Fold:
Amino acid sequence: MGLSSGREQILSARSGAGNQVDDYINNQRSARGKTPGFGASPGSARGSARSRMYDMPSARGSARGGSKTSPDKSVVSIGSMGDPADYLEKMRKTKMAEAREKAKKEVASFEGHYNQYSRPKVSSSIPLRSSFLDPKINNIPKSKTRSELLRVIKANNIPHHSFDIDGDGYVSQEDLLLGKRFDLDGNGVLDPEEVEIGRRIIAEEFFKAHRHDLHLFGEDYHEHSEHENIDKVATSHTFTKIMNGLKEKEKHYRDRGSYNMTEALTVWNPELVKNNFYADKMDVTAWNDFGAEPRAPDFVANGKHSGSRHAMFNLRKNIEREVCQQRLDAAEAKKPKYSTRRVALMTNVEIENS
Structure:
């Protein structure tokens, strides 16, 4: 009985203190001309704390001496905003559209399709000469001093920031490779459409490489088709975050698996070196003819080839080296052979003193 009565006293004291605080706040707001907020009855129009947060009058209207009871029109209410998810999606689309227009204006700011970032052209009037001699193809801005010229060349050798397809902040080798592939007009600057194509290719290559182990990357990707996953990732406004997460998971499973071991094996994939007709097929480091067109496998090392100029010189060098080694072996075989064997032991005193 004593415990229950003490508990009731504590609860009544707390409720009384709370009511005093609410009454004080309401009195202060009424003195300043504001409608009561905290402590209002649940049935009142301003009883919800969430609605009060969005419908509070602004301080700017109070400072001008206007009506202090009407809410500010600049404040967005929940009813006008609708579903927060739809509102955020609309904001994202607006931001993406603004970024797209900004990128288009930046590309259009370059004079024509031939600028300082463009791939150099070959002169039709002065072939095999420096581009400085032909003003039509010279895409390097004019400089007054040599130092300024070197700075300009150094700045132009850095890829344009539009080549950052994956959006990680720097142009990697993969970004540069894809950027050169999809720079269709050759102006050295990627349009927004070309960036979207590059992102789609990155997503396609990833999901094609993980067709058989897609369940390791989450049920969201495993339950949908490959085409749906590519569209979802390529068109996402958080493409960089999604791809970084997928690459981290890929690295985790790759380090735990046997990828590094199989990559170190000799000829783990014979398809890579099947066209290396003049190199050792059992040597996985024979990349000198990688990517060449298929040729007949039966050939004789007689100096004839159907490859590049580098292949011809390499074949000649190997033939000359083999011929010289054969001549050296033949000359060595003609020399007289002398026996260097001992005829007596070193401890034979009779032979030594004779």
User: Anything to note?
Assistant: Residues 2-31 form the longest helix (30 residues). Confidence is low (pLDDT under 50) at residues 34-68, 281-288. Residues 110-121+129-261 form one domain.
